[in-house]
Amino acid sequence: MMTKSSNTLGTVRSQQPDPVSPPRWPIRAVVVLLVLLSVVLLAGLIGFVVQHKTVLDRDMEQLLQRLKNVTEQRDSLLCKQECPVGWDKFSCKCYFLFNEQESWIKSRELCVSHGADLVVVDSKEEMDFISRYGRTFWLGATDEASEGLWRWVDGTVLSADNPSWFSGKPDGGKDKNCLRNSWEDTNFKWMDERCKEINYRLCEYNLIK
Asked: How far apart are CA 194 and CA 174, in angstroms?
């Protein structure tokens, strides 16, 4: 009886099903899926950036154009102002020629004390205008800070190849570091001169500043 009972119990145990393990995705398939997902997300991000960059560029362009228009309107209004009494007006600038003669440095100091500076020549038209004063006067340019590098007092560079040089180029070397006007066959020219020499001073006041 005991033997039969043991055999029956053993048979029952052998007929129970084995536990079922959950299915596993192959690692390669998971990697491929992640790569595809990354590509899709990256493409979407690039599209988003490109679309919004175009909008930002357009808005920036419109803003810059509006700023330019406002600046031009402001300059136009400022140019309509009258110069101080005794000063001559040309374009958007005012000019005054002082009768006293001084060195370049003292001449500039005088101009600055009147809220102006030594004249900066921006165009041939301006050169023609200031030539009417008919005197030798200082202009607002020097290469004293760096030999051979001529700059106007407003910071802009005066090229050594400019056709307005009396001799075609500066010819004073290290001894002549300041700019004055000159004439050759009644044409307005300029030349380098020793800064300690004395000349008249032509001051210039810019209305749009």
From this structure: 9
Q: Which domain holds residue 157?
A: 88-206
Residue 44 sits at the vertex; the CA angle it makes with 41 and 48, to the nearest 5 degrees, is 140
Tokens representing 15? Answer: 């007929």
User: In this structure, what CATH number is given to the domain that contains residue 194?
Assistant: 3.10.100.10
- pLDDT (tens digit per residue) in 66-95: 665 555 555 556 677 888 899 999 988 999
- The pTM score is 0.63
3 state SS of 17 = coil
- 3-state helix/strand/coil string of 154-193: CCCEECCCCCCECCCCCCCHHHCCEEEEEEECCEEEEEEE
Does 178 share its domain with 112? yes
| Same domain as 154, residue 69 | no
Cβ atoms < 10 Å from Cβ of 118: 24
Q: What is the dihedral angle through the alpha carbons of 114, 116, 118, 119, rounded to the nearest 10 degrees?
A: -140
What are the strands, taking DSSP E only, across 18-173?
88-90, 93-102, 117-118, 137-142, 150-152, 157-158
- Please write the tens of the pLDDT for every residue from 118-132: 999 988 899 889 988
Residues 128 and 73 in one domain: no
